[in-house]
Design goal:
Arc Repressor Mutant, subunit A, single chain, binds zinc ion, 6 helices, alpha+beta, 2 domains, two-stranded antiparallel ribbon, 18% strand
Length: 193
């Protein structure tokens, strides 16, 4: 019989929901990690989201999903973690952060505006992303093109250049927290004169 060797400590961080008040701040709920309790299998005290994020980082895990590879936005609604490409790993998260910065540099608002001008009618996020990817000669998966294009399109929508046509695909918490998968936009009609 061989002796038991000391096993390396595992750090499985778990998240448990606490009671969510009716008038909960939606942003804090979905993005801020509020109304949750955190624990690690090693027993480290994790009194708040910040402590859980630090512990994830120091144990080589993604600070967004705490190593679980997915995120529960509201109770019962789970999404793959976009920060670490659903690997749960800190090193992948860091590489992906750099890629997000790079995408923001090459996919400018001017470029997206130019692509959008080529559509006479409504267009989907995926169509714009594909066109951008083609025009820059980017291989699929090289840069987070979709998320960056989505951000720019939302900006153009906020400034009144675009109008969103689709209804949300998911109402996660009434109309306050909604999710669009591949939304449809249209260029806003030019003001007369
Ligand atoms: Zn731990
Ligand atoms: Zn993650």
């Amino acid at each position: 019989m061989t002796e038991h060797t000391t096993r390396p400590a595992t750090h499985t961080i778990t998240t448990r929901w606490q009671e969510i008040p009716e008038d909960a701040d939606e942003r804090a709920l979905v993005e801020g990690g509020a109304f949750r309790a955190f624990a690690c299998s090693c027993g480290a005290p994790l009194p708040a989201r910040v402590a859980a994020e630090l512990h994830a980082m120091e144990t080589g895990q993604c600070s967004a999903c705490l190593g679980s590879a997915d995120r529960e936005l509201v109770p019962g609604f789970v999404q793959r973690c976009a920060a670490c490409a659903a690997t749960g790993r800190r090193n992948v998260q860091l590489v992906w952060e750099v890629a997000h910065g790079e995408a923001a540099e090459v996919i400018t608002t001017a470029l997206v505006r130019e692509v959008v001008a080529g559509f006479s009618g409504p267009f989907r996020l995926s169509q714009v992303a594909d066109t951008v990817r083609e025009s820059l000669g980017l291989a699929r998966g090289r840069l987070p093109v979709g998320p960056r294009v989505r951000d720019v399109l939302r900006e153009l929508e906020a400034s009144g250049e675009l109008v969103m046509l689709s209804a949300p695909d998911e109402l996660l918490r009434g109309p306050a927290v909604v999710l669009y998968r591949d939304p449809l936009w249209q260029r806003a009609p030019l003001p007369p004169g």
